[in-house]
Every structure is written in C-alpha cells, then in structure tokens.
Amino acid sequence: MQHVAFDISGIYLEFGSSGFVQAFVYMIVYAFFYYLFARKMNEHGESRVHLETLFPLATIIMIVWILSVMETSGLDWFRAEAGSRIFYRMIDALCCFYVLWVQENQREKLILKQELDGINTAWMLQKEQYVIKQEIIDSINRKCHDLKHQLQALRQMTNEEEKEAYFNEMEHDIMIYDTAVNTGNKALDVILMDKGLFCKNHDIQWTCMAQGSCLSFMRIEDIYAVFGNALDNAITAAMEIAEPQKRVISLKMITQNNILVIQVQNYYETLLHFEQGLPVTTKDNRQEHGYGMKSIRHIAEKYGGTITVDTKDEIFTLQVLIPLERT
C-alpha cells in the first residue's frame, strides 16, 4: 500500500512539487486500500497464508523493490523521459496492487472453503445423530411394547417397595410417549420426539403443528439437518431465559400457494449480530461454530428455496420457504 502511494506520488512529482498535494495523494491511496483490503480483514479476523502461495507473491514484491531501488539510484538505465518514468511507476503500482488483490481473493476462497467444510461436517454429524437416535427410539418403542406383558408379573408382586419402584420405572418410560408425535414422516417424528423430550425435561414449553407428508421430496439427512439445527438454536436461546413464561418454542409447518413454510419461533435475550442476513454465533470460537444457520440456508437453496430471519419484539423467527413444485 505504501509503495503504491509512493508510485502515485512519484507520478505527481513529474508535474508539480507541492507537499500538501503529496500528503493528499497518500491519504487518498491509503483510504482506497483500507476500503478495498484492510476493512475486509477486520471483518473476518485472523487470516492464514499458505507458503506455496506466499512464495510467488513475495518474489514479485522483491523484484518490484529491486527495480525501485535501481530507479531511485540514478543509474543510466533508468534515466528516461518523463513519459517512460510515469509508465514505469504505473506498472510498479499495478504489481503491488496485484499482489494484494491475489492474496485477498485467495483469502476469501479459503473462508468459503472453511464454511463449506463446516457445513458438511455439521451435516454429517446430524446424519450420524439421526441414525443413533433412531436406534434409541426403536429400542424405547420395543420396551414400551413389552410393558403390557410385564403387567401380569406386576399383579403378582406382593412386596410394596418393589411394586412402587416398578411403577416409577414404568411411569418414566411411558412419559416418553407424552412427547411422541405422528406427522407422517418418520425422520421428522424422531427429531420432534427427541427435542420435545429435552424441552419437557428442561421446563421449556413446546408447541408443534406439522404435517410430515409434505417433506416426502427431501432426503432424510436434510430433514434432520434443517429441523435439528433450527430447534437446537431455539433450545439454546430458551435455556438462557430466566422467566418461565418466555421459555417457549413454537414450530409450525404449513403449505401456502404451493410453498412449504417451516417456521420456528422463540424468545431470546442475547444481543444478536448479523452477517449476510444470518445471525452470528454467540460462542467464542466462531471458526468452529455458527454453521447451523448456514447449513439450513444451504439445504433450502438446494431445493430451490430460501430462509428469512426476523427479530421483532424479542421474538426470534426463522422461516424456511421451499417451493413444492419440483423442476
């Protein structure tokens, strides 16, 4: 940046010698480079540079620096007319600009790659969790089914303490069915049962209105990723609220004008910051968290849809809109 300013200032010196104008040239060049490069670095924080890309750019910088030293040394090779000197300065400045532009372009590609890797990792974890929880719930279903066969043994028990302990165990197992739902989609049923049971055990009010048959066009892992991430974010926000009446999560899934609308609402208290229309994770390590919302948007766009986020009146509203007409 400094070298470009030096080159532009050198071009001006071919026509005048005002110190004030030179200072103004430096200010303009610095402001331009800040807007184009430095400001973006502040937005994304730490930037990693790979040696294989750094070496050729450093070589260009070294060549530019050597040529500049030779040009200012007064050697006969560089004693040329003003037009030639101006042309050299322009090429010199463009080389420096090119180096910064290439680095910025590579850095943005690296950021996008990291985000995509994070989304893919989150997607794979959600897929693995779905398989595990499906097995758990199938096991619970078998256990609850076996309860009717165990009632006969219960009638024959004479020890009141054993009978009471058995009743308590049965009550705990049957409580799971208070959160069971039948939406018409097995993957969605697993998610809602899992999240609903968690909410019940942590004093979070839970309401759900969903018709799972509308999701027949979506892959199972995509269903789990969308609803799992959306409800996990809502649960995290609800857990941070002290007022019991505000520990509420609402899930609604309807179809309007041949568009599937998935809406998740919850109260929130944490101050939210947004980037590219999505809230930024409130966790300390942003490089390892914050891919849930991006994963939801990625899957919505995969099916030709989009997502919207609203934070009016301390209520966080996430809407996922997906057209039902497949092209």
Commentary on this structure:
With 327 residues, the chain is α+β, with helices and mostly antiparallel strands. It has 8 helices and 7 strands; from the N terminus they run H-H-H-H-H-H-E-H-E-E-E-E-H-E-E. It has helices spanning 2-13, 19-44, 51-72, 82-155, 160-175, 186-201, 220-239, 292-302, and strands at 205-209, 248-256, 259-267, 274-275, 278-279, 306-310, 315-323. A 5-stranded mixed beta sheet has the order 1-2-3-7-6, with helices on one face. Helix 4 packs across helix 8. It is elongated. 20% of the residues are buried. Residues 285-289 have low confidence and may be disordered.
H-E order:
HHHHHHEHEEEEHEE
Q: What is the beta-strand fraction?
A: 5-15%
What is the rounded distance between the termini?
49 Å
Number of strands: 7
Count of alpha/pi helices: 8
Q: If you compute it from the alpha carbons, what radius of gyration comes out, rounded to the nearest whole angstrom?
A: 31 Å
For the biggest sheet, the summary is:
5 strands, mixed
- The whole-number mean of residue pLDDT values reads 76
Structural class: alpha+beta
Strand order of the largest sheet: 1-2-3-7-6
Cα shape: elongated
Give the low-confidence spans: 285-289
Proportion of residues in helical segments: 55-70%
